[in-house]
Amino acid sequence: MLKKLKTDNRIFEDNILKTMSTVFKIQQLTKFYGPIHALNNVSIDIPKGSIFGLLGPNGSGKTTMLGIIMNITIATSGTVLFNDTPLTADGRKKIGTLLETPNFYHYLSAYDNLKITATIKGIKNPDIDGVLKQVNLYERRFSKFQTFSLGMKQRLAIATCLLGDPEVMIFDEPTNGLDPVGINEIRNLIKSLAKNGKTIVMASHLLDEVEKVCTHVAILKKGNLLVQGGINQIMNQDDMIELNASNHDLLLETVRQIPHYIKHEITDNGNIMVYVKQGTVDTEGINQLCFKNGIVLNTLSLKTESLENIFIGLTS
Amino acid sequence: MGHLLYIEWLKIKNYRTFWILFTLFVISMFGICSLWWYFDVYTKESGDMAMQAAGSFIFGSFRFPGVFNTLTQISSWLLYFPGFIIIFLTTNEYTYRTHRQNIIDGIDRKDFIKAKILLAFILALLCTLIVSICAVIFGLMSGSGYYTNDILISVFYFFIQSCIYILFALFLGLLVRRSALAIGIYFIYGILLDYLIAMTISKYTNSTIGFYLMPLQVSDQLLPNKISSKFLEMLGDFKTSIALIICIAWIVFYCVFPVRKFQKEDL
Predict the structure, then answer these.
(1) What is the pTM of this model?
(2) Which residues cross the membrane (chain B) (predicted)?
(3) Does the interface predicted TM-score (ipTM) exceed 0.90?
(4) Of the spans A38-52, A96-110, B44-58, B170-184, which averages the highest pLDDT?
(5) A92·B264 Cβ contact <8 A
(6) How many angstroms from the chain centroid is the CA of residue A222?
(7) What are the strands of the beta sheet with A95-98, ordered from one edge?
(8) How big is the A-B interface in CB pairs under 8 Å?
(9) Helix (H) or strand (E) holding B250
(10) For residue A72, which residues of chain B lie inside 8 Å, CB to CB?
């Protein structure tokens, strides 16, 4: 029941997002580094208000794509539209971006570094103290950047993204170098930004996090786009139930009688994984069915296909 | 333009290396001039005619209008300081990868380089101003004199020379991207290589063409000291007007090349 509600909710979110306009329209993006094909004719639409997860193994072209969007990498061909117009320097001022490692003037303080960013972005009366408080760096605002730990540097980079309260944010591995507490803080921050209706593009290896937070996902491999769309579309897998009982052979015969049965597999630990049509699983009914057939289940658990499994399946 | 310069100011106002090098330039300028001037006064007071002749040949005059020519010659050796400043400011962007961050934050690629070029021109202007102030001070200390257009021409030529030295440093910084290497190349090239290449070309062509072609040599010849003037006279005729045109061509090259390079490459 809970799962059905969750699924319905996601389908509802998908439908809402389908009607939304796109923030980024990436069209046939190609990038060669000499003979290496970093991006191969990739086209992605990023809807307004979405949290867009960009996934892919190392060297799949995620950072290259974000680099092209932010004009630090020149595309061999293709275009990037931002709010339906080609992305210019003025457009980039409206985007908060953290790409790879934090880049700041080592000899300047956190405050001075943020002041430079605010001046470049043309932000009048920037709330530098406010964003420093948000990332817990206010106490160290006059310390030089070179004295910061990796986690503090990353937090300062996130503070630059928050300057001017941009509607669109791009994060490339935002939790890199952070300790568990820092990771949790950043996760919560991203979630709160998402709640405020910001469009967030996030390249990450933390698939569990992407699955929890993102509304849309694109998976890249060796510069090719493997799949893109709403996370529900991508996660649109059959329901799975893991079963086991002492009478294993009888259980194997019984699982075929489960309503909307598709197939079954034996797992590594000897359990039976039964696949049924998405949204139709009824654990109480299965228990009753087994009981009627004289089987006492010692394992009955509902499994869902994780994004990680989908990712590994697609990229391996 | 003001906005770009303000961003550059934010980058340098708390940059200790900038202030150390700039102070060194000013102190060296006044320090060397004071020693020169003291020697000039001493030789005149000593009444030794041979010393006086040698002094005025090597050091030039400290009276108006000659003081401008004398000081611009002395300070041309000190132009390495602003050159180092611009190398540090340029290579820092690559070392800290802040050039990427600036572009990400919304500076146009062309504007990013334009800001550096503007800074180079402002540094050249500042150096010219300091040299001019120094010349006025030492000129007044040396007694009366008279005004001629040569003063303005010397100051203008020094500005052109400063532009070439500083823009050449910017060019090297953008090309080499590493501060220590860029400074090493800049210093060795400026002290030795530029002259040696000019000499070699001139030797093989039996003319002064080498001194017209090389950027630092041609700008040095706008304000030649008496020794180098004599040397060039031996090689052939050297026209300052042609040298000036070539200097301006080099300045244009040093402004256009970085913009083109920065617009086309991955950062």
Answers:
(1) 0.81
(2) 18-39, 77-96, 117-139, 151-176, 183-204, 238-257
(3) no
(4) B170-184
(5) no
(6) 19
(7) A95-98, A168-172, A199-203, A51-55, A216-221, A224-230
(8) 79
(9) helix B240-264
(10) 100, 103-104, 266-267
CB A297 within 8 A of CB A287: yes
Q: Which residue of A has its CA nearest to B12?
A: A108
Q: What is the pLDDT of residues B113-142, one digit of tens each?
A: 999 999 999 999 999 999 999 888 888 887
Q: Cα B40 to the chain's mean position, in Å?
A: 25
Count CB neighbours of B175 within 10 A: 13
The CATH code belonging to domain A2-234 is: 3.40.50.300
d(CA B265, CA A136): 37
Predicted confidence at residue A10, as pLDDT, reads 47
Q: What is the CATH number of domain A239-315?
A: 3.30.70.100
Residue A55 pairs in a beta bridge with A219
Check whether A9 has a pLDDT greater than 60: no
Report yes or no: A119 at the B interface, CB cutoff 8 Å: yes
Structure tokens at A69: 């969007």
Structure confidence at residue A236 (pLDDT): 62
Average pLDDT over residues A284-291: 87
Total count of domains within chain B? 1
User: Whole-angstrom Cα distance, residue A143 to residue A150?
Assistant: 14
SS3 of chain A = CHHHHHHHHHHHHHHHHHHCCEEEEEEEEEEEECCEEEEEEEEEEEECCCEEEEECCCCCCHHHHHHHHCCCCCCCEEEEEECCEECCHHHHCCEEEECCCCCCCCCCEHHHHHHHHHHHHCCCCCCHHHHHHHCCCHHHCCCEHHHCCHHHHHHHHHHHHHCCCCCEEEEECCCCCCCHHHHHHHHHHHHHHHHCCCEEEEECCCHHHHHHHCCEEEEEECCEEEEEEEHHHHCCCCEEEEEEECCHHHHHHHHHHCCCEEEEEECCCCCEEEEECCCCCCHHHHHHHHHHCCCCEEEEEEECCCHHHHHHHHHC
Instruction: Enumerate the residues of chain A whose CB falls inside 8 A of the CB of residue B100.
Output: 72, 99, 103
A36 touches chain B (CB under 8 A): no
